[in-house]
Write a structure and sequence with these properties.
Helices cover 19% and strands 35% of the residues. By secondary structure, it is an alpha/beta fold. The protein has one domain: 2,3-Dihydroxybiphenyl 1,2-Dioxygenase, domain 1 (Roll), CATH 3.10.180. Helix 1 packs antiparallel against helix 2. 17% of the residues are buried.
């Protein structure tokens, strides 16, 4: 039996994104970031941890009729921001801001095919 990492008190444990087309959402995030999924029926797909199958899932894609704008902004880390910009564009995402510099790094914001806005940042 493999042992998972202990949960850290008051840390973000799971991010759930609403999508209007589950298959398209999975395709986009797989193409742009290499994410893998576990299907839990027609309305939900869990986002697998990059640490492997023994680690808990890190989030999910939930099917709904619409995406509501606003709320927290999810930021992803990239070791190659320019490559991430290209991957988002090639997967069908729309850049909405940047890339731009900020103290300590660079980042950009994009929307996925359902209209969710996320950001990606990299150290300088």
């Amino acid at each position: 039996m493999s042992e998972s990492a202990p949960q850290r008190h008051h840390t973000i444990d799971y991010i759930e994104l609403t999508v209007t087309d589950l298959a398209e959402g999975k395709r986009f995030y797989a193409d742009a970031f290499g994410w893998q999924f576990t299907d839990y029926g027609p309305g939900y797909a869990g986002i697998r941890s990059p640490r492997g199958d023994a680690a808990p899932e890190v989030g999910g894609l939930r099917l709904d009729e619409e995406v509501r704008a606003g709320g927290p902004l999810v930021l992803l880390y990239s070791s190659d921001l320019d490559r991430s910009v290209q991957a988002v564009k090639e997967a069908g995402g729309q850049l909405v801001n940047g890339p731009y510099e900020f103290p300590g790094g660079r980042r950009f914001h994009f929307t996925d095919p359902s209209g969710n806005e996320l950001g990606v940042w990299a150290e300088q």
